[in-house]
């Protein structure tokens, strides 16, 4: 009597014969997946959990949830300069909802195929809706981008624009409204469908001295680089890349707050030695990704300071933390 | 304001400088962990989720939970013949309970050290108590034990004894009682502290034709071998290894039912070609692990049949399934 049961869910929705990777010796269907790495490849592994109510709303569309769950994890690979390879998915479901599972798994496999990734295992359990994704990427040995390489004098860059995702979240929470549908759609898309900067991350491998993805908020995430590298920083907040839409929808002050503290932008924040500054801009331009210099690494004794049009501001760090938020 | 927050929990309880592995380039503290495999090593990955109410009771002791969560995952590596290496832990907690976290993490690291494993990453979120462990092991290239290698004529073996764990669960559920405290302690320990058969699994690598761990129940798990290998089987149920305690506490019929269908024994079920039958018994004896032959692989057309003292019985498969149980 396994109709509608765990094994049936896995075989019906998650054991698809789509992308095959040659480095997968055994995928779903044994006690473990078996993977063979090429010589001189380093394995990069990251794990993220998404819980209903904490990371997404009850009424999120299943395809948006699948997209975001994968994008959040891909963003961790991007921040290391890794090439996506394999995914594990542990999902808890309160009940078996076939249309939901169909839409969720369709969207997941569309993204997996796009990134030439293979789902290699997981677990399906009954429980409150939540999921833990384990993402595995590959990076040439010695080339991974770490948080610990920033040096005094390096320039601080970010990709894309910051703060849009926080504005999108505020829209979902009815804390914000827009003048036009186009503005609303843009900000919601930036929140629900962030673009993991996979190719940009790979382009940074030989040029950046450190990198992180902006998940908790720029100041919080840059703080991790500063701590790991034993350095300080100054940020020119008038240099923050703000989208035209964000600037049209909220005040300048709020836009800057969203950009500094909002989180979930999934852009890359990285540091670049002076010698590679031009090369970085060329590399990103070739990918069609905007890169903006927003500050510079200082000695640790300087802490982290914000400037606005050349004037030093008082600084109050705010990072997102699931247990204190 | 991170006191008691996510970062503080990770650094206080889970980012311990205990076992260091030379193949871990970067562990906890960056966007991804970075791992370097030796040439000719195949990576084995398994993921298991444990949810309160489904996989453990609310009042389980934190050290028992840590032990079991890891043992369940180690058992998947054992079934592949893999050597444990790295763990990821994604844990959802309803609140921050420092004594609980201390006891849980102490027990977890005690086991990790025992198996020379390193915790390389994870995620801490607020939510109903649940956890997803991702376990990573290493196996010499081409040597992993798969479910798909069983051949007509191979002998079916199991390690240890079967059914004790189901009896221990029945005790926790007040569905069973024992005459002595020693009997109760033995059965509870078999349920709460199963022994992952890591060394036995490695000893089987050159001798067994297929293997699986007994998590859902012998018949259900053997069924996976039969399906993957395209074969059938007969089981001599009077050959099932039953502990003296189990036989003293329940009827013969119930002991056999627990052994066939109970699950969570985390023993290995494996198949062995006739030519390796003696070598297997010697290899297991050298490890102090009992191995018992309980049946033989037949052609697929025979399905799966149970015999008792040479007499064929009607067969009704029952496997544990989270959505139909």
From TrEMBL, chains A, B:
Q: Which CDD domains match?
A: ThiL
Q: Which PANTHER family match?
A: THIAMINE-MONOPHOSPHATE KINASE
Which family would the database say this protein is a member of? Belongs to the thiamine-monophosphate kinase family.
Residues binding substrate are 55, 264, 320
Entry protein name: Thiamine-monophosphate kinase
Residues that hold Mg(2+) 4 according to the record? 31, 46, 76
Could you tell me the superkingdom of the organism this chain comes from?
Bacteria
Q: Which molecular function GO terms apply here?
A: ATP binding; magnesium ion binding; thiamine-phosphate kinase activity
Q: What does this protein do?
A: Catalyzes the ATP-dependent phosphorylation of thiamine-monophosphate (TMP) to form thiamine-pyrophosphate (TPP), the active form of vitamin B1.
Binding-site residues, Mg(2+) 5: 216
Miscellaneous field = Reaction mechanism of ThiL seems to utilize a direct, inline transfer of the gamma-phosphate of ATP to TMP rather than a phosphorylated enzyme intermediate.
Which Gene3D superfamilies does the annotation name?
PurM-like C-terminal domain, PurM-like, N-terminal domain
| Residues the record lists as binding ATP | 122-123, 147, 215
Quote the catalytic activity from the record.
thiamine phosphate + ATP = thiamine diphosphate + ADP
Identify the HAMAP family for this entry.
TMP_kinase
Domain PurM-like N-terminal as annotated: residue spans? 29-139
Enzyme Commission number(s) of this protein: 2.7.4.16
Q: Which GO terms describe its biological process?
A: thiamine biosynthetic process; thiamine diphosphate biosynthetic process
Please list the residue ranges annotated as the PurM-like C-terminal domain. Answer: 152-300
Binding site residues for Mg(2+) 2 = 48, 76
Q: Which UniProt keywords apply?
A: ATP-binding, Kinase, Magnesium, Metal-binding, Nucleotide-binding, Thiamine biosynthesis, Transferase
- Residues binding Mg(2+) 1 are 48, 123
Residues binding Mg(2+) 3: 31, 76, 213
Pathway linked to the protein: Cofactor biosynthesis; thiamine diphosphate biosynthesis; thiamine diphosphate from thiamine phosphate: step 1/1
């Amino acid at each position: 009597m396994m109709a509608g049961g765990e094994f049936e869910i896995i075989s019906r929705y998650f054991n698809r014969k789509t992308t095959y990777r040659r480095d997968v010796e055994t995928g779903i269907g044994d006690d473990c997946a078996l993977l063979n790495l090429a010589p001189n490849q380093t394995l990069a592994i990251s794990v993220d959990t998404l819980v209903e109510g904490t990371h997404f709303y009850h009424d999120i569309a299943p395809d948006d949830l699948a997209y975001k769950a994968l994008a959040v994890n891909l963003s961790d690979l991007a921040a290391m300069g890794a090439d996506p390879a394999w995914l594990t998915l542990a999902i808890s479901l309160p009940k078996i909802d076939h249309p939901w599972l169909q839409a969720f798994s369709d969207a997941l496999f569309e993204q997996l195929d796009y990134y030439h990734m293979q789902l290699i295992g997981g677990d399906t359990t009954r429980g409150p809706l939540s999921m833990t994704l384990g993402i595995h990427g590959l990076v040439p040995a010695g080339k991974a981008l770490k948080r610990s390489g920033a040096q005094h004098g390096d320039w601080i860059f970010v990709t894309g624009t910051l703060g849009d995702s926080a504005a999108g979240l505020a829209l979902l929470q009815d804390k914000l409204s827009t003048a036009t549908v186009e503005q609303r759609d843009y900000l919601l898309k930036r929140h629900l469908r962030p673009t993991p900067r996979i190719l940009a991350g790979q382009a940074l491998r030989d040029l950046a001295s450190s990198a992180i993805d902006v998940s908790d908020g720029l100041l919080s995430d840059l703080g991790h680089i500063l701590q790991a590298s034993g350095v300080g920083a100054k940020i020119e907040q008038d240099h923050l890349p703000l989208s035209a839409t964000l600037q049209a929808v909220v005040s300048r002050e709020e836009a800057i707050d969203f950009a500094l503290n909002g989180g979930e932008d999934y852009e890359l924040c990285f540091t670049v030695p002076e010698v590679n500054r031009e090369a970085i801009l060329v590399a990103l331009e070739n990918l069609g990704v905007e890169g903006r210099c927003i500050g510079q690494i200082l000695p640790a004794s300087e802490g982290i300071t914000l400037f606005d049009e050349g004037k030093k501001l008082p600084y109050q760090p705010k990072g997102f933390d699931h247990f204190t938020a």
